[in-house]
Specification:
With 155 residues, the chain is an alpha/beta fold. The protein is built from five helices and five strands.
Length: 155
Amino acid sequence: IDAGKPKDPNRLVFTLNATMSLNLIINGTVGSGDHVVTTMVEHNSVIRPVNHKVKEGAAATFVAPDAEGYVDPEDIRKAIRSNTSLVVVNHASNVTGVVQDLEAIGAVCREAGVPFAVDSAQTAGVLPIDMTECSISFLSFTWFVWVAGGRSPRP
């Protein structure tokens, strides 16, 4: 994982797991009156907090994938509004294994000036992720999947 240059250790936050970090990201960037863009192929760790934010007065757009499970970056672009405060996408589905084009989606977010959050629980440490090249604002991953050999730290 390349967080760009210069490296700033003050921008690194450790949480118990990816679900907790995604909750922190979504709750910290989406408020009442804001809009969030995500996809219909997200893990519950994204869908549940997004739906909670909708109950609190935010709006959400769930972009549909194509027949193979890929999200078209142009559909992300079309979903972004003037009050969009976050785009959140998983790098790879835990169900289908489809890997999304982070560089293209990130370029859309960069052009729109919208923070881009990526759930990389299935890919961090396995596939290269360049946060600068992909314009990623927030990267969430589960350390035990790739550091501890897949064993959860929970007792």
